[in-house]
Specification:
The complex is a heterodimer. Chain A is of the alpha+beta class. Chain A has three domains: 154 residues, Aldehyde Oxidoreductase, domain 4 (2-Layer Sandwich); 196 residues, Aldehyde oxidase/xanthine dehydrogenase, a/b hammerhead (Aldehyde Oxidoreductase, domain 3, Alpha-Beta Complex); 330 residues, Aldehyde oxidase/xanthine dehydrogenase, molybdopterin binding domain (Aldehyde Oxidoreductase, domain 4, 2-Layer Sandwich), CATH 3.30.365.10. Chain A is 29% helix and 23% strand. Chain A has a seven-stranded mixed sheet with strand order 3-5-1-12-9-10-11, sandwiched between helices. A five-stranded mixed sheet of chain A has the order 7-15-14-13-8, with helices on both faces. Chain A has a four-stranded mixed sheet with strand order 18-26-27-28, sandwiched between helices. The radius of gyration of chain A is 28 Å and the shape is globular. By secondary structure, chain B is of the alpha+beta class. Helices cover 33% and strands 14% of the residues of chain B. A five-stranded mixed sheet of chain B has the order 2-1-5-3-4, with helices on one face. In chain B, a hairpin with a 2-residue loop joins strand 1 and strand 2. The chains are: A alpha+beta, B alpha+beta.
């Protein structure tokens, strides 16, 4: 088609200009008359009884407005922070769900747990006053690691949960899996750790709240990926503010990655303080504060084994994982290592029997929740590492064993033994292209050449499948979701034919203002610059579940497409009237309504004008105006998939890993804007490579102090972590949404840790090394090399 | 203390505490919120501005240290080619999809302009090394590197390079 701003066009982003000129509007930029500034006082201890808080000296300081504590929250009847998912254990009982006070009272349960809020006329005054508040603690023994937490006699994070076990969850057919192992020719095993990560979007979290006593309305500006959900959870469950009196605005938000998709205690405390004190209150997290108060990601300890027949066919997979929840249940916490993990363990293989059990455990650490990929990178890492180990054990080629077990493309739709029905995919097609693009077959020469320079060279691959497009509400409800997971979009066509889209997803870097405009442009045949996309304000946008789980396009985009279709349908009725033709004879294409087989037509803009100036209009049967709304609830998850290949060199003397090349071939369904898709892949892959090579959250085992608590200590990926990546899409259409889209926000992060670690282990395989945990830091690799050389020398 | 400096070409006289950071002067006093704060350890580079043509982390410089200086923030670099015109480095970030959430972008662009002033024909490796002090969590850096290479070439081609 001639539409240069429609689906598939790599148009430049509509939203760029305000960001490149410094005119973005982030929460930290919000300034209100009479605004006060808040600082949280946070626990320096991982586990302690809170004996008393003496704020008298602070309250005497000039400019100090208030010091508020958990006791004040309790006195005001403020509720705890609710968890959005309630999972069910093997025993059929609901998970343990201890209270999550918005500020601690009685006990603190992790370093960074908020104990008081200081409000003052400036941030500096608030900080000074915070230093003057005396908090008395009775320090208790802390527990950090999940294995330690399950040991008899371990400190109990919650007194009434003495074993620290939130839930013992399972999926799959245990008996069938055990039978598969009983008949197996080979069993491959792996024990691994999926290291804890800290998401660190570049914009720290922030909240500003204002109460207008004259109208009784409360407004919260928050760095949120889902303002409508914050409005519902905070208004309804925490503060008791009626929905029509509460407005939540998430303006420009500087990256999310899951970290900003939870209802945080700080949002509720700042809103409560603004209402209680009747002054606007602003809080902006410092980075070091974010390290101990933003929900963290991953943190699994896993034992997994694969049963294979003599040809290397997968017969069964058995996985046992212990997952860390931290000190409280965050909004999606218990859902991540269970529903978003176990059902992904089939990967792209035909393994007939799978059983997975997950113990979800409390510890004295920052709460753990979704972080880009959320359960699915963990599943991919377990499965793909295990496949590599099995290949090595059977003496099979890593590619051959995967091909031998892949779901044939013709077998889609494919029902796995762990709940999911994949609608479409082409894993072998992705693999073939990844191998060709990476010159897999020419690797031996490159390895030999590297050896002459004293370097270990390795090549690695991983396949993956993702379940995203969260989510079919009915299925999610069965799995424990306490909300719907549909999305809504309104298409407001103005009398001039310009369009405003009001959508319930939230954009914090993904380019929605462009991508969604392209969908409308494609369908209505109007240029994208005539379309404005509005999100992030509950007073403007009807409702929405926000952005996470790679859902914006497949769920939000589908709602948008439905609304545009309704606009076209109404436009046809108007056109039929104006063109004096039967509605079935009206065709709509290239922005024109025409009578089939004639030269009579009206432009889209002429129909819009008629809808708003209905002088000649079928008012008896049709309302004037042209605005349509849809709520779309998907019938299934979407299933992106792909194959990635990475190549590394390792310095034998220092253990330094150099990531030399990265090829990603991904099946993400219909591509709306290939430029934006490539950007999503780049960012996702580097986040996964960060986990594989440098990032890790380190807590001191005895004190529970976060040792990697700043950018000095937590190794964020920098620009020199890797060279340019090759990104290729190899798409099959999603069969259950009209756009055929699957989602691309998380695929990079899902595929890359397993891919990079496959390459690292391959590089070290001449030393007899079959697995190393992440991150493959120089220290860890150097130690692994040294240990392997000692072992080899001893043989 | 009484502080006189030039910000984005405009003379400014303000009374500031001696411990005020340059970034707080820009953001809180002058309302120039394009300069961002992304960390508290001088690592992330979201706060980079120019002081007398050289990139500095404004979170790590006292406002009083800018006495008599020419300070340029992200808000001050466009418009040289007429109203609404972008600086070549801004244009390059737009054309190469060098930004996603936009939070690191002002610091990235200000840092990149300083880099371009010092390097006429840089390699990709030199760009990646220069970015040691600027973090981005969204882009994986690939399109930022492409933006800087393109922006540097455009700056040198259009004569918008300043001697450092």
């Amino acid at each position: 088609m001639g539409n240069i701003t429609g689906i598939g066009a790599a148009i430049l982003r509509k939203e760029d200009k305000r960001f490149i000129t410094g005119r973005g509007n982030y929460v930290a930029d919000v300034k209100l008359p009479g605004m006060t500034y808040a600082v949280f006082i946070r626990s320096p201890h991982a586990h302690a009884r809170l004996l008393g808080i003496d704020a008298s000296a602070a309250l005497d300081m000039p400019g100090v407005v208030a010091v508020l504590t958990g006791a004040d929250l309790k006195a005001d009847g403020v509720g705890g922070i609710p968890c959005g998912w309630g999972i069910t254990g093997k025993d059929g009982l609901p998970m343990k769900e201890p209270p999550h006070p918005a500020m601690a009272h009685g006990k603190v349960r992790h370093v960074g747990d908020a104990v008081a809020l200081v409000v003052a006329e400036s941030v500096d005054l608030a900080r000074l006053a915070a230093d003057a508040v005396v908090v008395e603690y009775d320090v208790l023994p802390a527990v950090v690691g999940v294995i330690d937490a399950l040991m008899p006699g371990a400190p109990a994070v919650f007194e009434d949960i003495p074993d620290n076990l939130c839930c013992d969850w399972e999926i799959g057919d245990r008996a069938a899996t055990d039978a598969a192992f009983a008949s197996a020719a080979h069993v491959a095993k792996i024990n691994l750790v999926n290291n804890r990560l800290i998401g660190n979007p570049m914009e720290p979290r922030a909240a500003v709240a204002q109460y207008e006593s004259s109208t009784g309305r409360t407004t919260l500006w928050s760095t949120s990926q889902f303002p409508h959900v914050v409005k519902l959870l905070m208004g309804n469950f925490v503060l008791g503010i009626p929905q029509h009196k509460l407005r939540v605005i998430a303006p420009d938000v500087g990256g999310g990655f899951g970290v900003k998709q939870f209802h945080y205690a700080e949002e509720a405390v700042i809103t409560w303080a603004a209402r209680r004190l009747d002054v606007p209150v602003k809080w902006v997290s410092e980075r070091s504060e974010g390290f101990v108060s933003d929900a963290q990601g991953r943190d699994h300890v896993t034992e997994a084994e694969m049963a294979l027949d003599e040809t290397g066919k997968f017969l069964g997979l058995r996985v046992s994982t212990v997952a860390n929840m931290g000190g409280y249940l965050s909004t999606f916490g218990p859902n991540i290592p269970t529903n978003l993990y176990g059902p992904l363990l089939a990967g792209v293989y035909t393994t007939p029997a799978i059983y997975c059990e997950v113990k979800v455990v409390f510890t004295n650490t920052v709460p753990v929740d979704a972080y880009r990929g959320a359960g699915r990178p963990e599943a991919t890492f377990v499965l793909e590492r295990l496949v590599d180990v099995a290949a090595a054990q059977l003496g099979m080629d890593r590619v051959a064993i995967r091909r031998h077990n892949m779901i044939p493309t013709a077998a889609y739709p494919y029902q796995t033994p762990v709940m999911m029905e994949y609608d479409s995919g082409d894993p072998t097609g992705c693999l073939d292209r990844a191998l060709a693009l990476s010159d897999w077959d020419g690797f031996a020469a490159r390895r030999a050449e590297a050896a002459t320079r004293g370097r270990y060279r390795g090549i690695g691959l991983a396949t993956y499948v993702e379940a995203c497009g969260l989510a079919p509400s009915r299925i999610a409800g069965r799995l424990g979701a306490r909300g719907g997971l549909y999305e809504s979009a309104t298409v407001r066509v103005h009398a001039t034919g310009d369009v405003t889209v009001l959508i319930g997803t939230h954009c914090h870097g993904q380019g929605h203002e462009t991508t969604f405009a392209q969908i409308v442009s494609e369908k209505l045949g109007i240029p994208a610059d005539k379309i404005e996309v509005v999100f992030g304000d509950t007073d403007k946008v009807q409702f929405g579940m926000g952005t996470y789980g790679s859902r914006s396009l497949s769920v939000g985009g589908s709602a948008l497409a439905k609304s545009v279709d309704k606009v076209i349908l109404k436009g046809r009725k108007i056109a039929a009237h104006l063109l004096e033709a039967g509605e079935p004879d009206i065709e709509f294409a290239d922005g024109k309504f025409s009578v089939a087989g004639t030269d009579r037509s009206l432009k889209f803009e002429e129909i819009c004008l008629a809808a708003y100036i209905p002088h000649n209009y079928p008012l008896e049967v049709l309302e004037p105006g042209l605005e349509e709304q849809s709520f779309y609830d998907p019938v299934n998850f979407t299933f992106p998939g792909g194959a990635h290949v990475a190549e590394v060199e390792i310095e034998a003397d220092t253990g330094t890993v150099h990531l030399l090349s990265y090829v990603a071939v991904d099946d993400i369904g219909t591509v709306i804007n290939p430029m934006i898709v490539a950007g999503q892949l780049h960012g996702g892959i580097v986040q996964g490579a960060g986990q594989a090579l440098c990032e890790t959250a380190v807590y001191d085992d005895s004190s529970g102090q976060l040792l990697s608590g700043s950018f000095m200590d937590y190794a964020m990926p920098r620009a020199d972590i890797m060279p340019n990546m090759k990104i290729v899409t190899h798409s099959t259409r999603c069969t259950h949404n009209d756009l055929g889209v699957k989602g691309c926000g998380e695929v990079g992060t899902i595929g890359s840790p397993a891919t990079v670690m496959s390459a690292v282990v391959d590089a070290l395989s001449p030393l007899g090394i079959t697995h190393v945990d992440m991150p493959a830091s120089p220290n860890r690799i150097w130690r692994a090399i040294k240990a392997a050389r000692v072992a080899q020398a001893a043989e | 203390m009484e502080l006189t400096l030039t910000v984005n070409g405009r003379k400014v006289a303000v009374d500031v505490p001696t411990d005020m950071l340059l970034v707080d002067l820009l953001r809180e006093r002058l309302g120039l919120t394009g300069t961002h704060v992304g960390c508290d350890t001088s690592q992330c580079g979201a706060c980079v501005v120019h002081a007398d043509g050289v990139s500095v982390k404004s979170c790590t410089m006292l406002a009083v240290a800018a006495q008599g200086s020419q300070v340029t923030s992200i808000e001050g670099i466009s418009g040289a080619g007429g109203r609404n015109s972008l600086h070549p480095m801004q244009q390059a970030f737009h054309e190469n999809h060098g930004l996603q959430c936009g939070f690191c972008t002002p610091g990235m662009i200000m840092s990149s302009i300083d880099f371009a002033n010092r390097n006429a024909a840089p390699t990709e490796a030199e760009v990646r090394h220069w970015l040691e002090g600027n973090m981005c969590r969204c882009t994986g850096y690939q399109n930022i590197v492409a933006s800087i290479l393109a922006g540097t070439a455009a700056m040198h081609a259009t004569g918008s390079v300043e001697a450092a």
